[in-house]
Structure to design on (184 residues):
């Protein structure tokens, strides 16, 4: 097979640095506005990336657990997505054996270009390197596209579900289902 003669995309995934905080926050604010538009009321999500970036800077500078990682998807040198991994925090999970993909976000305009798949693969490799044998993630109960993305990569529902009260008032709730996959 001949080598491609045209330009190839410069895409990658790497561990996030504290210097990535502004870019990650911009991706998060932009992507969440689309991802949760039909789920949460207006004003429930941040629209200013500055305070979100400060939280990212603190988190990236001093993770609570050495196994907590943030990964960024890059197109050339531009952050187009991010993911967060670490020990699973659910009471029925083993924090030694079970890892979690806590977030996996790609800019809406960058979806369908392989960034999510690269991030998910990097999450699995990162969790395996941290000696987790199973991974879990939570997804909105009605987000069929996201569930299809994960199930297409070998994940499956594990019967766990939850309803999160996002503002403590009972007014803003989301239903989620948990997916899991073996890492070994």
């Amino acid at each position: 097979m001949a080598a491609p003669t045209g330009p190839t995309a410069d895409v990658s995934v790497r561990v996030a640095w504290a210097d990535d905080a502004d870019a990650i926050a911009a991706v998060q604010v932009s992507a969440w506005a689309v991802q949760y538009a039909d789920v949460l009321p207006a004003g429930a999500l941040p629209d200013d990336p500055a305070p979100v970036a400060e939280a990212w800077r603190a988190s990236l500078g001093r993770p609570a657990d050495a196994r907590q990682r943030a990964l960024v998807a890059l197109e050339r040198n531009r952050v187009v997505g991010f993911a967060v991994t670490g020990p699973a925090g659910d009471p029925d999970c083993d924090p030694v054996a079970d890892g979690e993909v806590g977030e996996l976000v790609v800019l809406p305009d960058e979806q369908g270009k392989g960034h999510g798949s690269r991030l998910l693969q990097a999450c699995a490799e990162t969790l395996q390197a941290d000696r987790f044998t199973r991974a879990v993630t939570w997804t909105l109960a009605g987000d069929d596209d996201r569930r299809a993305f994960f199930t297409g990569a070998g994940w499956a529902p594990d019967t766990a579900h939850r309803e999160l009260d996002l503002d403590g008032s009972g007014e803003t709730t989301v239903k989620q289902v948990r997916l899991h996959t073996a890492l070994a």
